[in-house]
Design a protein that fits this description.
Chain B: This is Large ribosomal subunit protein mL44. Chain B: Its main location: mitochondrion. Chain B: InterPro entries: dsRBD_dom, Ribosomal_mL44_DSRM_fung, Ribosomal_mL44_DSRM_metazoa, RNase_III_dom, RNase_III_sf. The complex is a heterodimer of chains A (208) and B (400). In chain A, 54% of the residues lie in helices and 0% in strands. In chain A, helix 6 packs across helix 7. The longest helix of chain A has 19 residues. Chain A is elongated. Chain A starts with a helix and ends with a helix. With 400 residues, chain B is mainly α. Chain B folds into two domains: 269 residues, Ribonuclease iii, N-terminal Endonuclease Domain, Chain A (Orthogonal Bundle), CATH 1.10.1520; 74 residues, Double Stranded RNA Binding Domain (2-Layer Sandwich), CATH 3.30.160. Chain B is 39% helix and 6% strand. In chain B, strand 2 and strand 3 form a beta hairpin. In chain B, helix 6 packs across helix 7 and helix 8 crosses helix 10. The chains are: A mainly alpha (208), B mainly alpha (400). Chains A and B meet through helix 9 of A and strand 1, strand 2, strand 3 and helix 13 of B.
Chain lengths: 208, 400
């Protein structure tokens, strides 16, 4: 019994998770077990826009909208045509904002991994030759890796080749059959999850 | 621009029987017309000189041949006098606050479909043609001026949502118009009269029997440009004669033609301003969330193309906020930035979806740019005291 009591705090100290460091004294953690404590917990400082109207110098509007996605009907400054009157108005507020604005961090995952516009005609010819000679070895991702270009570019070229060469067409059919066979082996759960993923993508493309 | 003489126009739309002249002669003339003209279907709305009933003209000799004492011939639609005694019709006229210039007889005519009465002098075909054209003109000029960058496919969908047959049917029903079980002269003129299609009747499917020149091709391409040229105002193919049913009508189209005919009759009797106000109040006042009509295929790529076209910096996805990365239900809020300007914002349970949503939001806000609600449309210039025209914003076109 004593051992168990002793071991628990030690474990939490040794654990990597930082929040556990503060729960070292877990028996002494305060709960909202009394009404006084509960009231104290809920006593949050009000939003600054909710100023009292009693001691205000003049009538004012409280503007504190709940956080929500911005409306697409509010055209960003960049999208307004040159002769639009709203441009001047928005420009003023944008300038104020930019003085102390920090641009949020870039998402690394979406930065282009490949170079752009660096392939010569010779490179493209070589890529075509490799693909035609051995489509099994030179898959699209392998080609993209070798030539340091995007998959989209490789796909454009291979689509043209597939149209021209019958053996590539057969290869494409074989690949599709293979994929179909894999899909046929999916169980109920996985099949449903994949179907849901497609539905979610459809909704995202409408932003619905 | 030469102004149209409406007074001259409405004369031919008002059929001769509604003119205040000798009632006896009028009745005889009707009987004569019904017996001899009913079978002739004409596609043009202009009536030939022989059918106009001049008040002081000589009585036709052929009238004597008709036996007026015999049994009353069965007419395909109710007589115009009945319109004056129909409570439904008067109520409809009052409910829509139609101008007093629009007589009840014309109102009764808007309710007679071409499948009920094939004679164009007594059905609503001509009025529906006129009203339908006016309506689609007012709707499309409003949409194009309000959203100058709207893509063509979305414009088609929005036009369909405003004045497509489905919407017009809803409007007709909201006006309180009901259908008659079958057309005939004994029917109350306040009911919508048309020959109903039997359940199970084959309706031509998509692309069957079109008026397109390449309709015989099995796999013809229907690009947006060709839809502008060959198809109707909603970008749908126009069915040809072989696939349309001549003597029956769907309820949807019957209602749609009625609503169009009301607009046409307001134009014919009360003028352009009244027709425009009517369309504004009944069609354009309806709420449509245009931002829900967009579907993109490659939003991230499209946005990159837009930035390249407009000489802006390449769009970059940046993390605005996130919560619960290691949990089962994380939420990422991603913003798309070009330089330091935010173009769009979206949230999703993974970074890929959040970026797609942000790109879609950015593209929508590009396409849905609007000069404002008070934008002037070309037809505003038709009023007498219009201030000089300022050119509206015209966009260079869609991104891809």
């Amino acid at each position: 019994m004593d051992v168990r009591v002793f071991r628990k705090p030690v474990c939490s100290v040794l654990s990597v998770r930082t929040q556990c460091l503060f729960s070292l004294t877990s028996p002494t953690r305060r709960h909202q077990s009394t009404s006084r404590r509960s009231k104290k917990m809920l006593n949050i400082k009000p939003e600054s826009s909710f100023r009292s109207t009693i001691d205000a110098k003049q009538d004012h509007i409280i503007f504190n909208p709940p956080s929500a996605a911005p409306s697409v009907l509010h055209t960003p400054l960049k999208f307004l045509p040159k002769n639009d009157r709203r441009r001047a108005l928005l420009k003023a507020t944008e300038n104020q904002k930019q003085a102390n604005a920090v641009v949020p961090p870039v998402i690394e995952k979406f930065l282009a991994k490949w170079e752009r516009n660096h392939l010569s005609e010779k490179d493209v010819e070589e890529m075509k030759k490799l693909r035609v000679d051995d489509p099994v070895k030179w898959r699209l991702d392998k080609l993209s890796e070798k030539f340091n270009c995007s998959m989209a570019f490789v796909r454009i070229i291979s689509a043209e080749l597939t149209y021209q060469h019958p053996h590539l067409r057969e290869h494409a059919i074989r690949e599709r059959e293979k994929a179909e066979a894999v899909k046929a082996r999916w169980g109920k759960k996985r099949a449903m999850a994949r179907e849901d993923r497609v539905k979610r993508l459809d909704l995202a493309l409408k932003d619905a | 621009m030469k102004r149209l003489q409406l007074g001259r126009w409405s004369g031919q739309l008002l059929c001769p029987r509604t003119r205040p002249c000798c009632l006896r002669q009028q009745q005889q003339q009707q009987v004569y017309q019904r017996l001899h003209v009913a079978s002739s279907i004409r596609s043009q709305s202009t009536s030939s000189a022989a059918e106009i009933n001049y008040e002081d003209g000589p009585e036709s000799e052929t009238l004597a041949e008709i036996d007026l004492d015999g049994p009353v011939p069965e007419f395909p639609s109710p007589l115009p006098e009945a319109a004056l005694h129909s409570a439904k019709l008067a109520a409809l006229h009052a409910r829509l606050s139609l101008p007093q210039k629009l007589p009840l007889q014309t109102m009764a005519r808007t309710l007679v479909d071409s499948t009920a009465d094939p004679n164009v002098d007594f059905n609503n075909a001509t009025l529906a043609q006129l009203g339908g054209n006016l309506m689609s003109y007012y709707v499309s000029e409003y949409l194009i001026c309000k959203y100058p960058r709207i893509p063509m496919t979305v414009l088609f969908a929005a036009t369909y949502a405003y004045n497509g047959p489905k919407t017009l049917q809803i409007i007709g029903k909201e006006w309180g118009v009901e259908t008659a079980a079958a057309p005939g002269s004994e029917v109350d003129p306040g009911l919508l009269q048309f020959s109903k299609m039997k359940p199970g009747t084959q309706i031509p499917g998509f692309g069957q029997g079109q008026t397109r020149p390449n309709a015989h091709h099995q796999s013809n391409r229907r690009g947006v440009s060709s839809r502008v040229v060959y198809d109707d105002e909603f970008g749908d193919t126009i069915p040809n004669k072989t696939t349309t049913h001549d003597n029956v009508q769907t309820t949807e189209l019957a209602y749609a033609n009625f609503v169009r005919a009301v607009v046409g009759s307001v134009y014919a009797h009360a003028g352009r301003e009244a027709a425009k106000t009517f369309v504004k109040q009944h069609i354009l006042s309806r709420h449509l969330d245009i931002s829900q009509l967009f579907v993109f295929k490659w939003p991230v790529r499209d946005l990159a193309r837009l930035c390249a076209r407009e000489d802006w910096e390449h769009p970059v996805a940046r993390m605005l906020s996130e919560t619960g990365r290691r949990s089962r239900t994380p939420v990422y809020v991603v913003g798309i930035f070009s330089g330091t300007d935010k173009l769009g914002e979206g949230s999703g349970p993974n970074l890929v979806e959040a970026r797609i949503r942000a790109s879609v939001a950015a593209l929508k806000s590009w396409y849905l740019y609007s000069p404002g609600n008070q934008v002037r449309v070309p037809s505003d210039m038709e009023s007498e005291d219009a201030v000089p025209w300022e050119p509206v914003h015209i966009d260079i076109g869609e991104i891809v």
